[in-house]
Amino acid sequence: MTEKCAVCKKDIVNTTYVPMDEWNITGNLCSECYSEKIGKHYPGKHIRTNRLEDFK
Ligand SMILES: [Zn+2]
Q: Are 23 and 5 in contact, with CB atoms under 8 Å apart?
């Protein structure tokens, strides 16, 4: 059973990301959308995908 990303509606192929409360998103995110959201949430910071665990 493949989960769909709440933002782009595509199948989540690798890791499923849980959105932050302040994003007001119901459901889970794919890594692409999560990276994009995190980039907007923390402007000016370059965050690598392998460090996303830090924000849970
Ligand atoms: Zn997505």
A: no
Q: Give the Å distance between the CA of 12 and the centre of ligand 1.
A: 7
For the whole model, what pTM was predicted? 0.68
Q: Cα–Cα distance between 4 and 46 in angstroms, integer? A: 26
Q: In this predicted structure, what is the pLDDT of residue 24?
A: 94
Enumerate residues with CB within 5 Å of ligand 1 (an ion).
Answer: 5, 7-8, 30, 33
Length of the chain: 56
Of the CA atoms within 13 Å of residue 42, those in its CB half-sphere come to 11
